[in-house]
Amino acid sequence: MDLRIGGRTALVTGATAGIGLAIARRLAAEGATVVLPGRNRDKLDAAARSIAAEPGATPPRTVQADPATAEGAAALIAAVPEVDILVNNLGIYESKAFEAITDADWHRLFEVNVVSGARLAQAYFPGMLARNSGRIVFVSSESGLVPPPDMLHYAVSKTAQLTIARGLAQRTRGTGVTVNSVLPGPTRSEGIVDFLKSVASDPDAPAAALEEEFFRVHRPLSLLARMIEPDEIAGLVAYLASPLAAATNGASLRVEGGIVPTIA
């Protein structure tokens, strides 16, 4: 599919693995110049090589900077002062009983999951409005709508992303800028096996058994009843980042396998 994003600059956070890497790979394959920020030079270089190896992909650019910190975000914005597409994908998660969540846990989840994306949107949104063109996508989660009881700090951070995205979208009226969110469900990515072990009755069970138990016990509403593949999310994000999605604005689009049990 020609998504008509060739020649555009796309900044994708959290793009050295998992969903972010799949999004970056898809955007590069569609001709966008993708910028990958991150803390770890080795991981950045490995991600860049994997993207550049894709047939027809535009070679990506890397910036060693952590948008989850004020200093890192400032360095990133200085290195990349203007983008056409911003995908706020950076995020962390964990399973933790509500009574055990500390102030430090709340601050850490919010700094990484919420404030990092807010900082970048704050920097790039005005320029998009001035140019009357741009796409911002927040990678939120179905947990923002159906909060897992053992991940409430994570769920609240994902609901906050939805609020920011919708509020920014309301400021785009009559322009060529859109701001949307996508809501993935549990996704097969780096670290997922460790997470499944942390909530399993038998952490030493085979990976397939861990996944089956997770959906049976912790995500029984899932219609897909399996982990979502990162590429399955990347396709929707790439569409929202393209001119083809001009009429989709202020939306929260679900790609979560049917966990949210509502018709809208």
TrEMBL record:
It comes from the Bacteria. This is SDR family NAD(P)-dependent oxidoreductase. Pfam families: adh_short. InterPro entries: KR_dom, NAD(P)-bd_dom_sf, SDR, SDR_fam. Belongs to the short-chain dehydrogenases/reductases (SDR) family. Residues 8-192 form the Ketoreductase domain. It comes from Methylobacterium ajmalii. Gene3D superfamilies: NAD(P)-binding Rossmann-like Domain (3.40.50.720). PANTHER family: 3-OXOACYL-(ACYL-CARRIER-PROTEIN) REDUCTASE.
